[in-house]
Design brief:
Layout (H helix, E strand, L loop, with lengths): L6 H6 L10 H6 L4 H32 L11 E2 L2 E2 H25 L11 H8 L1
Antiparallel strand pairs: 1-2
Helix pairs in contact: 3-4
């Protein structure tokens, strides 16, 4: 059975959902900077994944299943079929290079903990 909460407590409770905010509260709402940064980084990762997926599917479908296969004239790149080199190895290398750049240059390191004040730090060590 649900517990009845006095109306005054309901009105003063801070909502954790943006959809529960009043228009006045929504005008003052500012999302957490860590959330904004994480959302921006997730968009880049998803975009890169989709681009590699489209590239791989298009190249492998187009060149991996030819109508007529002649083993003597099958194009090779470094001893492997061209569709594997261009459709799988190339986007894999590009994705690795973009990932390294993304992690070293674009991604931001954020502090997830609240800073400890000097008073609290001295109490914790005592």
């Amino acid at each position: 059975m649900p517990v009845a909460v006095p109306r005054s407590k309901l009105e003063t409770r801070k909502s954790s959902f943006v959809s529960d905010l009043t228009p006045e509260q929504l005008a003052e709402y500012e999302p957490d900077p860590i959330f904004v940064s994480s959302r921006r980084e997730a968009k880049w990762i998803l975009l890169m994944w989709i681009a590699c997926l489209i590239w791989t599917m298009a190249i492998c479908d187009t060149f991996g299943y030819p109508k007529a296969v002649n083993p003597d004239e099958f194009p090779l790149v470094l001893g492997i079929p061209m569709w594997v080199a261009v459709g799988i190895v190339f986007p894999w290398l590009v994705a690795n290079a973009v990932t390294i750049w993304f992690c070293l240059a674009y991604m931001q390191d954020c502090d997830l903990q609240e800073p400890v004040s000097d008073e609290n730090a001295s109490k914790e060590t005592a």
